[in-house]
Fold this protein.
Amino acid sequence: MASLDNDDVSSIIKFFAARDNTIASGVVGSGPGEDFESATYGNFDVWSTLEEWESLLTDRELEQPTAAGGPDVVAGSDSPLVLLVSRDLTEALADADAEALGGLAERWSVLRAEEGEAIDDELARELIGEVAALAADAVRSRNSLYCWVCCRGTHLYRGSTRE
């Protein structure tokens, strides 16, 4: 598991694809296992990240609400959670070429740094590349992209940590 440098959040984040919310909900307790291809990372604000990626890839102002309202919680009420990544973001990641993904990684690193999250550029490129590959597979197979979030020691809820 790759970890991004953020002392405020101790979390495991796994992106994966599933046919529907019912199947994705089934992994809430332990996360996606070997039956799912996944990209595993940790210690970054997943709520802000998903909003920022969608904003940057769709040229939407960050303050402008997304049409779908951001990621939906499909399972869990605190930690762990399973989030449904918006269809707009899934398709934007799937359609992005290497240059667009590299630009996304650079701009995302800057945005996270402004919020006090140090994200290594190489790691940002790796994460975004792996999630984009999962998104492309999801779109091709008519699945949806999900994110399993499990926090250790703190509880992650919509962009903030709670004790």
Q: What stands out?
A: The longest strand covers residues 11-18. Residues 121-140 form the longest helix (20 residues). The radius of gyration is 14 Å. The beta strands are 2-3, 11-18, 38-42, 72-75, 81-84, 144-151, 155-157, 160-162.
